[in-house]
Design goal:
Blueprint: E1 2-7, H1 13-25, E2 29-34, H2 44-50, E3 55-56, H3 67-74, E4 77-83, H4 85-93, H5 99-106, E5 111-115, H6 119-123, H7 125-136, E6 140-141, E7 145-148, E8 154-158, H8 162-175, E9 183-188, E10 193-194, E11 200-201, H9 208-219, E12 223-228, E13 240-243, H10 247-258, E14 263-266, E15 273-275, H11 289-293, E16 297-299, H12 303-310, E17 316-323, H13 327-337, E18 342-347, E19 358-365, E20 368-376, H14 377-395
Parallel strand pairs: 1-2, 1-4, 2-3, 4-5, 5-6, 9-12, 9-14, 12-13, 14-17, 17-18
Antiparallel strand pairs: 7-8, 10-11, 15-16, 18-19, 19-20
Helix pairs in contact: 1-8, 3-5, 4-7, 9-14
Bound molecules: cytidine-5'-monophosphate.
């Protein structure tokens, strides 16, 4: 997920650095927006360094012409921590006089506010009415801790620990997700089929599509196991990753994970064939020329088909198909043959999809095909997860 952290002018602003780190440690992208007053407590440079340059303070003078709209559009959640009494009042009244408050007004994603201030300011009827107004509009107010405050007073008004803020936000987001409580298996990447100690048959699958699906399913609240062949892409840290090499290993790991999964998405590019025998030693030119010139192949197991034919009532199985012609009808045939519930058909007639960031995709189900057009793989993954959630709720 992309989380926007808002920092306002309060002594607890230093804790916002750790709030950013907590979200990053949980595998999320983070941007920061600061008020002018916040910079009296922590410099912009600190947040720039923590977010690789994704920290902003001003509506003007940025390369981005309309920064508050861009920030609002990319955010999956806006977390204002700490939120001063002044900013809570502005939010409650729709005042948009700087980048942070303008962004808040433009946000359609969930908004969280963690008030932090002196106890009397917090308990003041005006602040309480403002927080009530925010709650009534769906803003999640994170209750401050009570304790010894920076001003010397004792009572509620302390910013909770960063780990508590991050957990509160993530629990709320994930339990509201379309796949909350579901277990999803994703197969991803290529398989590697050994010829001898050094040679192998494989393919150019980058794992990008699998990684995008893993993240989209996690963001929707699912528990995700990814069974992957060797890839250089990084899977989201929240996923459980089972590394495999051969199709036989992938089948065995996938069947294990599928036993208690609600859905499987088979995005791996499994080698169709493997050498009949894998020599433990290196075949040598000169000595093993006949063995090198002709490598007998045998068919690999079809993992999608095995899961499709073995699924229980309620389990949903999704496959992929790369086609150069008759895309929809070939995918339809694959859907039936492999007993899948949905096939994501990729039209590769214009070139390879391997390693690319975009896909020309269609969703094919027993009731027909739906062309998505050319979309980034991340968008295909998000739509696939949405569709999967609908299918799982139908079959529940
Ligand atoms: O038959 P084809 O290789 O086009 O099917 C592609 C789909 O089947 C993908 O979802 C892929 O992950 C899956 N597949 C598999 N095991 C194989 C071959 C393909 O799971 N041996």
């Amino acid at each position: 997920m992309h989380i926007l952290v808002g920092v306002t002018g309060c002594i607890a602003a230093y804790k916002a650095c750790e709030v950013v780190r907590e979200f990053q440690r949980a595998g999320h992208e983070v941007s920061v927006v600061m008020t002018a007053a916040a910079q009296q407590f922590v410099g912009l440079a600190t947040f720039q360094a923590l977010t690789q340059g994704c920290a902003k303070t001003s509506l003007f003078g940025d390369a981005e012409p309309i920064p508050h709209i861009a920030l609002a559009e990319e955010a999956d959640a806006f977390v204002i921590a700490p939120a001063t009494a002044n900013v809570c009042a502005k939010l409650a009244h729709g005042i948009a006089d700087d980048l942070l408050t303008s962004t808040a007004l433009a946000c359609t994603c969930p908004v969280f506010v963690a008030p932090a201030m002196n106890v009397h300011m917090y308990e003041n009827a005006a602040t309480q009415a403002n927080l009530d107004a925010l709650r009534s509009r769906g803003v999640r107010v994170i209750t401050p801790d009570a304790g010894y405050l920076a001003c010397g007073d004792v009572g509620p008004g302390k910013l909770p620990e960063p780990s508590v803020i991050a957990r509160t936000v993530l629990d709320a987001l994930l339990s509201a997700g379309a796949l909350a409580g579901k277990r999803v298996l994703v197969t991803s990447g290529p398989t590697v089929e050994p010829i001898d100690a050094v040679r192998f048959i494989s393919n150019r699958s980058s794992g990008k599509m699998g990684a995008a699906i893993v993240r989209a399913a996690l963001d929707a609240g699912a528990h995700v196991t990814v069974v992957s062949g060797p890839v250089s892409v990084a899977y989201d840290a929240r996923a459980e990753v089972v590394w495999v090499e051969t199709a036989a290993e992938m089948l065995s790991a996938a069947e294990d994970a599928f036993a208690d999964a609600d859905a499987a998405i088979c995005a791996a590019a499994v080698a169709d064939m493997r050498p009949e025998r894998a020599e433990a030693r290196k075949l040598k030119k000169g000595r093993d020329d006949a063995a090198l010139a002709s490598i007998p192949l045998v068919e690999n197991p079809d993992i999608l088909s095995a899961l499709g034919h073995g699924k229980r009532v309620g389990q949903v199985v999704v496959g992929f198909a790369a086609e150069t012609e008759d895309v929809l009808s070939n995918a339809q045939e694959k859907l039936i043959r492999k007993q899948a519930d949905l096939i994501v058909a990729n039209d590769v007639s214009e070139g390879a999809v391997f390693g690319a960031d975009a896909d020309e995709a269609s969703f094919v189900t027993p009731s027909g095909g739906e062309r998505l057009g050319l979309l980034p793989k991340t968008e295909v993954a998000a739509r696939l997860v949405e569709r999967l959630a609908e299918m799982m709720h139908l079959s529940a």
